[in-house]
Amino acid sequence: MEFKIRSVVLPLVIINIALFFIQILVPGFTESFILVGSDIFSRPWILLTSMFLHGGGYHLLVNMYALILFGGILEQKIGPKRLLLLYFASGLIAAFLSSFFYARALGASGAIYGVIGGLIMIMPQLRLLFLFFIPMPLW
Asked: What is the model's pTM?
């Protein structure tokens, strides 16, 4: 029996939402896993863990909406394994670079921007409705 990954977008969304509820319910959870710029070499795992933390409900909602919207389209084009690789590589690179500019950071935004960048490269003429009625290219 061969295990085949069909979609990674929904599991990523579920993990992010579950960890957000843990952030709310478990005191000190966020502090333990947030990206602290001065700690990246002594606690390198925070480059990864900070990608699954969010600063509030709106932050989570916007990131997960973008992941579902853009990640779903890109996943159809490049497949789930490549999308997952792009998501984690973008998130880790963004976390590493942000550690030089911010004392503390959290969120999936770097990973989401990587997904959007990948989609722009593959489908540069994809049109979105800016302000819900003005068509414009994704780039």
From this structure: 0.88
Long-range contacts of 117-126 (CB under 8 A, 24+ apart): 117/90, 118/74, 118/78, 118/83, 118/86, 119/70, 119/73, 119/74, 119/77, 122/74, 122/77, 122/78, 123/73, 123/77, 126/73
Q: What is the pLDDT of residues 24-66, one digit of tens each?
A: 999 999 999 999 999 999 999 999 999 999 999 999 999 999 9
Give CA–CA dist 25/3, Å, rounded.
Answer: 34
Compute the distance between CA of residue 79 and CA of residue 53 in angstroms, rounded to an integer. Answer: 25
Cβ neighbours for 94, distance < 8 A, ≥ 6 positions apart: 109, 110, 111, 113, 114
